[in-house]
Write a structure and sequence with these properties.
The termini are far apart. The protein has one domain (6-420). The protein has helices at 12-19, 27-33, 66-69, 115-119, 138-147, 160-166, 213-225, 231-246, 265-278, 305-323, 400-410, 417-420, and strands at 6-7, 10-11, 54-60, 70-71, 99-100, 106-107, 123-130, 178-180, 195-197, 285-290, 331-337, 357-363, 370-372, 398-399. Helix 9 packs parallel to helix 10 (305-323). It contains twelve helices and 14 strands.
């Protein structure tokens, strides 16, 4: 067993966070977030949203083992008996081996569906990335990464994506600028105007039986018309948002290109997001969470829980890539996790909380077909015992804020990165074209 207390469902901290919904904002607060600044026009939907991308943020909660997903087979230390004698994914050319990407890194067999997007030049992978903050607490790392304040006092109460949306004008009429495809708004989106959690857009309807819906709505509108702000405006915006989403046929949505999403919460969330983006309603951001990655026990390499999680992840992303091709030039997806796992397996044949990890970026203007990994080479093997962070984990050589900042400035038109990530000067790693 490891130094962390855990069961088959992850460490106790992760289980508690899962029960509390990762401490996102409440639904009431999310409704209030729909209140728009005074400068947002109340007009019919515009159809010319300019050249800015919409962003989809996928957060893998629980800390994915990036060393199993994107296999550093070119680092001989990965196969050391002192690190992963039971968990290392074999190199390309072997039974159950990784799919080669660039002569040094490869895709786990469970991640192989992503090869098409990678080869198309629309998917880039970043290794040895993440938050430079050394915390290995899920709770603290969520806050630090989502608020965008590594190595700084936690004084902000808004998320980095929320501040981005605050600092740019809307793409459309501002009625619905961002959606959290979940029960709650994650910290990443806190503070964003015109934002709402929608766990199932197909059922985001006015509640109750249809026969009395009109009368009940009139009563609600009259009741909240005299309420104090921000409740009055939030109530109107919420009803308008229900009407707006009601114009999209989510239940009858047919993915393009023959894409088949996995019938899982993650697959359904991506499918709904694709429908939202294709509907041209001026949506600027969507967030999707996929949990379960706290694999302290029986992680496996070619089967088991981790393999199943990766299979669902890659199948969903591959379907989304195929489905969203008509909007690929107007969309960027960014994937991240709170931290990585330790380089060595534990006594329960799992991996414990570590440091450096993976990110991914997908889009028509992403510099895809490459694995960005600063200073990780055959000559400089970051898994060598002398180079491990705190002696047990992959280092962070590319700050996650650098990846996100490049996307925000070059694809989402935000020239105020100091507001998004205060007290930090990003260095763009070359994730966009």
């Amino acid at each position: 067993m490891s130094q962390e207390e855990h069961t088959d469902g992850g460490c106790r901290e992760y289980q508690e966070l899962s029960r509390r919904g990762f401490l996102g904002v409440s639904k009431l607060a999310a409704a209030a977030a729909l209140t728009a600044p005074a400068w947002l026009p109340r007009v019919v939907l515009a159809r010319d949203y300019g050249s800015r991308d919409a962003i989809v943020v996928v957060f893998l909660r629980g800390a994915i083992d990036g060393l199993s997903a994107i296999v550093p087979y070119g680092d001989v230390n990965y196969y050391s008996q002192s690190l992963r004698p039971n968990l290392a994914v074999p190199p390309p050319g072997n039974t159950g081996g990784a799919t080669d990407l660039d002569g040094f890194f490869g895709l786990s067999p469970a991640m192989a569906p992503l090869l098409t997007a990678y080869d198309s030049g629309q998917l880039a992978i970043v290794q040895a990335t993440g938050s430079p903050d050394p915390s290995r607490s899920h709770f603290d790392s969520f806050k630090i990464m989502e608020y965008g304040t590594p190595l700084q006092p936690l004084t902000l109460t808004t998320g980095w994506l929320g501040r981005h949306i605050q600092s740019v004008p809307p793409l459309g009429n501002g009625l619905l600028r961002a959606v959290a495809v979940s029960d709650i708004v994650p910290k990443t989106l806190v503070g964003a105007p015109a934002t709402v959690p929608v766990p199932d857009p197909a059922n985001y309807l006015f509640p109750g039986v249809s026969v009395t819906a009109v009368d009940r709505r009139e009563v609600l509108e009259a009741s909240y018309a005299t309420a104090q702000e921000p409740l009055a405006t939030a109530s109107v915006s919420t009803l308008d948002t229900i009407d707006l989403l009601g114009t999209i046929d989510f239940k009858g949505y047919q993915p393009s290109g023959g894409a088949v999403y996995p019938n899982s919460p993650f697959g359904n969330a991506l499918k709904s997001t694709a429908a939202l983006l294709k509907a041209d309603i001026g949506l600027e951001a969507a967030t999707i969470d996929k949990g379960g990655w706290d694999t302290h026990n029986a992680q496996g390499n070619l089967s088991g829980n981790m393999f199943n999680l990766m299979s669902d992840l890659s199948a969903g992303l591959a379907a989304f890539h195929l489905d969203i091709q008509s909007k690929m030039g107007e969309m960027t997806l960014v994937l991240m996790s709170e931290f990585g796992r330790r380089a060595d397996q534990n006594g329960s044949l799992g991996t414990d909380h570590g440091h450096g990890n993976i990110m991914m970026a997908m889009g028509g203007n992403i510099a895809g077909g490459q694995v960005l990994a600063t200073d990780w080479t055959v000559e400089n093997p970051l898994l060598h015992p002398d180079l491990l962070h705190q002696g047990d984990s992959l280092s962070v050589t590319i700050d996650y804020r650098d990846v996100v900042s490049e996307v925000l400035e070059r694809r989402l038109g935000n020239n105020d990165l100091a507001t998004v990530f205060p007290n930090y000067t990003p260095s763009f790693p070359g994730i966009t074209v």
